[in-house]
Every structure is written in C-alpha cells, then in structure tokens.
Amino acid sequence: MSGEGGGDARGVLQRPAPPADVALRYGAGPEHVADLRLPAEPAGPAQPLVVVVHGGFWRAEYDRRHTGPLAADLAARGYPVAQLEYRRTGQPGGGWPGTFDDVAAGIAALPGLVEAVLPAGRMAPGPPILLGHSAGGHLALWAALRAPAGVRGVLALAPVLDLAEAYRLDLDGGAVAALLGGGPEDVPDLYATADPTRSAAPPVPASIVHGTLDRQVPVEPSRRYAAGATSTDLRFVELPECEHFGVIDPLSRAWPVVLAELHWLAGRSGGIDAASRSR
C-alpha cells in the first residue's frame, strides 16, 4: 500500500480514516468548510496548527477526504490539523478567482476558529503551517506569497509548479486551463499572478518534497524552482523511488521524511541531514 516498490500507489485515496472531531465553517458557501482533528495530548510544547490544502488538480471530483489518513496521523503526533475545503473547477465559482479566494479566506480564518474550540494550551500561538499536496502545494505556496504574515511555513508535497509548463504538458487533461480560463497566451496576467514560480521564494520557511517517480506531476519544475531560489529558508528534498501519492501516505517509506520536514517547520531541531537533501 506504500506506493513505492509495489502495491497500489493510490491506496491512500480510498483508505478510511477516523472521522474528524469538529466541522468548521469559514464562509457561507457549501465548500467553505474544514475538518478539524484535535491533537493528542502533547508530551512537550504545544504544536502549531497545520492547515492541509488537498490536491486533485483543482477539480471538483477530488475533495479533502483523501487527506484523512495524513491528518489523523499528524493529530496523533500532537498537531492540531484542519483539512481545508475550497471551490474547485467544475463547481459554481470554482477556478480563478474563487478557488484562490477560498484558500486565502480559509487560511486567514482557521487559526481563530480552531483556537475557539481547542482546550487552552493545546495549540502553539501564531500562524499555521500550510501543508499542500499537488495542486494544494501550488495553492499553499501562492498563499504564502500573498499573505506571508499569516503563514508560519509551507510544506509543499509534489506541488504543481510552473503553471505555463503544466499547461503545455497538459497535466490531467487541461487542468491548468480549466483553473485559469485558458493558456499563457490567452490570460498572461493570470499566469503571472497565480504562479509562485514567477516570484521569489516565499519570505517564510518552506520545504518542497517531491518523488522522482512522480507521473502525475513531474519533479523537474520543483528542481528548477529550488535551484533558482536564493532563500536559505527554502529546502528541497528529492525522494528516489517515490511516486505522487507516497508523500501523503503515512504507511509509505517517504512519510518519515515528510514528518522531519514538518518538524523543522514547526521549529523543532532536526530535519533530514544534508546528505539526503537535494538543492
């Protein structure tokens, strides 16, 4: 089930997870919701809120439910975790700008909403860490560029970077065109606004984790983005023999690396050593 070295790489998408503890609303629309998982009693200092931005190429057929195993695992390790939902292409209001507006509004609202329902002392003060996978990794990096004061750090797992190239590669059969309403020549201003690779790295700590066997989202744009970054707070971890879903699967061999990067973002000592990191 790991998705590496055999088994069904997509197993995590159907694997059941314990139900969320609390449903939160950050807006009036049906998609303006987040599932909150309460953290286990911390053995040490309380951990920051982790806002999970799910992937699925921004499309309506993919929602937050497939990040349940990931969220449950992190909550068991002491992190409060909110799985953010947002309008997606194929739904009313999805695509530009609704998808982006929802993600920005949810990230801004969730720390206060979570603090209101968590027992005192169970969440570290300050802004959340954004954990985004695939299209969610793109949205997390975009959100950190848009409002860095509201973000502690970004963990982007197999993110869709370089939207113009993703359009040319026709990832998921026109996913980028559906998101932005056309190609780079049709709506150049939107590509400039929506693509994190058109800007410097976010002014917050960030880590990109990407597998070399990823067939859904090629690793090369992540390599280029990390190689061109001047920020010492941007880390790039390239995982040999890991595909697209291993980075969100708590049963995979990639998961300890993902956890190490999250711990680094949370301010813990450690992370992975330089020999296993690619820049």
Write the layout of secondary structure elements.
Layout: H1 11-14, E1 22-25, E2 33-37, E3 50-53, H2 68-76, E4 81-84, H3 98-117, E5 129-133, H4 135-146, E6 153-157, H5 163-168, H6 175-180, H7 188-194, E7 206-211, H8 220-228, E8 234-239, H9 255-265
Parallel strand pairs: 3-4, 3-5, 5-6, 6-7, 7-8
Antiparallel strand pairs: 1-2, 2-4
Protein name: Lipase
InterPro entries: AB_hydrolase_fold (IPR029058), BD-FAE-like_dom (IPR049492), GDXG_lipolytic_enzyme (IPR050300)
Keywords: Hydrolase
Properties at a glance:
BD-FAE-like_dom; disordered N terminus; 9 helices; Rossmann fold; disordered C terminus; Lipase; GDXG_lipolytic_enzyme; AB_hydrolase_fold; alpha/beta
Description:
This protein is an alpha/beta fold and 279 residues long. It has a single domain (11-276), classed as Alpha/Beta hydrolase fold, catalytic domain (Rossmann fold). It has 9 helices and 8 strands. It has helices at 11-14, 68-76, 98-117, 135-146, 163-168, 175-180, 188-194, 220-228, 255-265, and strands at 22-25, 33-37, 50-53, 81-84, 129-133, 153-157, 206-211, 234-239. The chain has an 8-stranded mixed sheet, sandwiched between helices. Strand 1 and strand 2 (33-37) form a beta hairpin. The longest helix has 20 residues, at 98-117. The radius of gyration is 17 Å and the shape is globular. Mean pLDDT is 92; it is low at 1-7 and 268-279.
The level of helicity is 25-40%
CATH topology: Rossmann fold
Which of globular, elongated, flat, extended, rod-shaped describes the shape? globular
CATH superfamily: Alpha/Beta hydrolase fold, catalytic domain
Rg over alpha carbons:
17 Å
